[in-house]
Design goal:
Elements: H1 3-11, H2 48-94, E1 95-99, E2 114-118, E3 133-137, H3 154-165, E4 176-183, E5 188-191, E6 198-200, E7 203-204, E8 221-224, E9 229-233, E10 255-256, E11 260-269, E12 275-276, H4 281-284, E13 298-299, E14 312-314, E15 327-328
Parallel strand pairs: 1-15
Antiparallel strand pairs: 1-2, 2-11, 3-4, 3-11, 4-9, 5-6, 5-8, 6-7, 8-13, 9-10, 11-12
């Protein structure tokens, strides 16, 4: 090169750091490309990402559990409402449970038994038949009302009224009884023949369901059952305040078919006594008498009227351990 070229090179500052420049990291080998220095990141301890992952999973699980608890709490009112509606429908249209408080139907039904009463078939016009065990409303004068004024406060009284309405508590106003149908409209029922038996339309009845030691009746009677009414008697004749003891009442001891709540078709509690309540052949096989008006019943002799409590009614009270009270039927 000529002098001119060397002069230009001599005018350039010498390579290396400027005198006033702060010291910096040593320059690496020249690459021909200037790069900004990037500080290295401290990766920190090795297990930290795993720990953070477990903590996040625990927080997520806790949040999900809280959501599930809130969801269950929101469902409780709906479950209660549905249960009450189902109980009300069952009590009104299908099956009702009654607790037996007295021994007027022994030995067929004993004190403390829970019986299931069919309330469904009467909606289709089914009427009680001879030999069936039925629950019916007090036709008037069969039961004494012993309920005093309530001492419950307004809130407790309202709560009891709701539970009673759906059948989860016994009702103070319900007056129900349970007996066996002996005669239906048009039948002639009489006691006693030469062997002390009850006769139905002139045919003596074999009554194997009677309580041991009980005669068919210690009180003679004779009645022709009016149409639309029933003559009913308990299986424990010595303690049953049945049609025989109410022949002076309106209806002359008979009860109206319209007052029948339903047929008791099964004992559902206790477990050792669960069985169906059948209809004795001796009653179901008797020919029906021709329809006709009833005659005034004739009762010969008499005695003290046995005392018996009303039935206790309920819907879901089959098992006493469930804590629901069934409603007693009066025997």
């Amino acid at each position: 090169m000529g002098t001119r070229g060397r002069g230009r090179l001599a005018d350039r500052p010498p390579a290396g750091p400027a005198p006033d420049a702060p010291p910096g990291p040593a320059a690496g080998p020249a690459t021909g490309v200037e790069e900004d220095a990037v500080p290295a990141l401290d990766p920190g301890p090795g297990p930290a990402p795993a720990v953070r992952g477990r903590a996040e999973r625990r927080r997520t699980a806790r949040r999900a559990a809280r959501r599930r608890r809130r969801s269950r709490l929101r469902e409780i009112p709906l479950i209660v409402v549905v249960a009450l509606v189902v109980a009300l429908v069952m009590k009104t249209f299908l099956v009702q449970v009654f607790v037996i408080p007295s021994g007027s139907m022994e030995q067929t039904i004993q004190v403390g038994d829970r019986v299931l009463v069919d309330k469904f078939t009467p909606w289709f016009g089914a009427e009680p038949e001879r030999g069936e065990v039925v629950v019916f409303k007090d036709p008037g004068g069969w039961l004494e009302s012993e309920h005093g004024p309530s001492t419950d406060g307004p809130v407790l009284r309202a709560a009891k009224q709701v539970l009673t309405f759906v059948g989860l508590l016994p009702s103070d106003s319900e007056q129900d009884l349970i007996k066996r149908v002996i005669g239906v409209g048009g039948d002639s029922v009489e006691c006693c023949d030469d062997q002390g038996r009850v006769s139905l339309n002139g045919s003596p009845l074999d009554e194997p369901y009677l309580a041991p030691g009980n005669p068919p009746s210690r009180q003679p009677f004779k009645v022709k059952v009016p149409p639309g009414r029933l003559w009913v008697m308990g299986d424990h004749r010595d303690v049953s305040a049945d049609s025989r003891f109410h022949m002076g009442n309106p209806g002359q001891g008979t009860i109206p078919v319209s007052g029948v709540v339903g047929r008791a078709f099964m004992i559902a509690w206790p477990p050792g006594r669960v069985h169906q309540l059948g209809v004795p052949v001796s009653l179901s096989s008797v020919a029906r008498a021709p329809a006709g008006g009833g005659t005034a019943p004739k009762s010969v002799g008499g005695g003290p009227v046995p005392e018996e409590p009303p039935l206790v009614m309920g819907v879901l009270g089959i098992l006493p351990l469930i804590g629901r009270r069934a409603e007693p039927a009066r025997l």
